[in-house]
Amino acid sequence: MLYRRVAGTKDILPEEVCFWQKIEEASRRIFSLYNYLEIRAPLIEEEPLFNRSLGPSSEIVQKQMFLMKNKDETYVLRPEGTASIVRAYVENHLDKALGFAKFYYLGPMFRLERPQKGRLRQFHHIGCEAIGSYDPDVDVEIISLAGNLLKGFSISGYVIKLNSLGCARDKKELSSILHKGLKDKLSKLCEDCQKRFKANALRILDCKNETCQEVVRELDIKDSYLCPDCLKHFNQVKEGLDSLKIKYTVAPYLVRGLDYYTRTVFEITHKDLGAQDALGAGGRYDNLVKELGGPDVGAMGFAFGVERLLLVQGACLVGRQARCEVQGKSLTYLISLGQEAEREGIKILENLRKNGIACDTDYESKSLKGAMRRANDLNARFVLILGEDELKKNVVTVKDMTSGEQKEVTQQELLKEL
Ligand code: HAM
């Protein structure tokens, strides 16, 4: 084999595409129920956009950006959607055109990670961003929307983890609590957390290392760093979720790895995913729009990883012989026997397609038997046979593959018959 796909990328083969289409269709339907508009941003952006938005010490900026150098500029294959959508909102003055605006997007993202189950270098997000409001009901709507999307994908058994990071000042306060509490315990922390202590102490809360988690839990931080306004906001979000009977778990150590988050953050995990257990995640980013040159407005969003949704659905497993249900369901299959019939057959196919009937033929078939086998494999609804006899009589033999019935019809009657 001469060429292989790049590690951490996937070919989505036709037999799998129908599962993607179902997820995409359900997403579009449910997003429009909430009045979200689709937005499509470029896959490449200028590098500083992500440095500024995600933070220079974030894992993505530190290690995972696909960079493309071109003369004096460096472009990046987008690692996530939020920064791009906010850039688009600001650059296109959508605050003036739309005011409070709700967007959704579907598409590939790129991160230079070590590939493993559920962790790819090219993966896909289904996400949304609601820009222009600080109202806690927006947080409630978004978390409810995430739950309804999962319902639309027939996924259950997930857990919604919820926390509040507070405003920028609260995040500083949390960071200083961590600095004070951990400065004498640094030797107990893993190497990465010792670095995080200097660069961004909040990330220590997110460390998967058990000893680091124990050391942090001993500090018993809870929500002590939240100012009264942020505490009120957090309580309103929880009340809103309770009123909709949405189940969630408060996770005091959930911080998320991106700098732009403020106040509400949430993550949706699923036990079937293993080590990479987040199906999706999101939160508020009340300072980002202003930081990227836009108005001073609040915003919130989230994104699901499509490959992980499919893993949970069980449809993405390597070697699975999944068949697209839709394929061939209403297909009409023409078998032309002989050169003259083939020439006539092309015209019949053209006419059927013009009239909205999906049809196909086997250009390579040498025998009626082989062609019938192919029609069966494709699960064709009708088979049309055009041989010398049929040509002479100006008819086509139509076989109904469900009932097995077979009859001759004239070419003029064919459309009506199908
Ligand atoms: P994120 O947590 O980095 O958030 O990504 C969201 C989801 O994308 C994850 O929960 C996971 O399901 C999936 N994902 C992330 N990295 C990979 C990967 N390497 N391979 C496969 N799936 C992956 C964001 O990107 C934020 N922009 C979400 C957001 C929107 N926050 C506010 N608005």
Helices and strands, with pairings:
Elements: H1 14-33, E1 37-38, E2 44-46, H2 47-54, H3 59-64, E3 66-70, E4 73-77, H4 82-91, H5 94-98, E5 101-110, E6 122-131, H6 136-152, E7 158-164, H7 168-182, H8 191-199, H9 210-218, H10 228-243, E8 249-250, E9 262-270, E10 278-284, H11 288-291, E11 299-305, H12 306-313, E12 332-336, H13 339-354, E13 359-361, H14 368-377, E14 382-386, H15 388-393, E15 395-400, E16 406-410, H16 411-417
Parallel strand pairs: 1-5, 7-8, 12-13, 12-14
Antiparallel strand pairs: 2-4, 3-4, 5-6, 6-11, 7-9, 9-10, 10-11, 14-15, 15-16
Helix pairs in contact: 1-6, 6-10
Structural features, described:
With 418 residues, the chain is α+β, with helices and mostly antiparallel strands. It is built from 16 helices and 16 strands. The strands form 3 sheets. The protein has an 8-stranded mixed β-sheet with strand order 1-5-6-11-10-9-7-8, with helices on both faces. It has a 5-stranded mixed β-sheet with strand order 13-12-14-15-16, sandwiched between helices. It has a 3-stranded antiparallel β-sheet with strand order 2-4-3. The longest helix is centred in the first third of the chain and has 20 residues, at 14-33. The radius of gyration is 28 Å and the shape is elongated. The relative contact order is 0.12. The model is unreliable at 315-322 (pLDDT under 50). Histidyl-adenosine monophosphate (HAM) binds at residues 80-82, 111, 113, 118-120, 123, 125, 127, 129, 278-283, 301-305, 307-308.
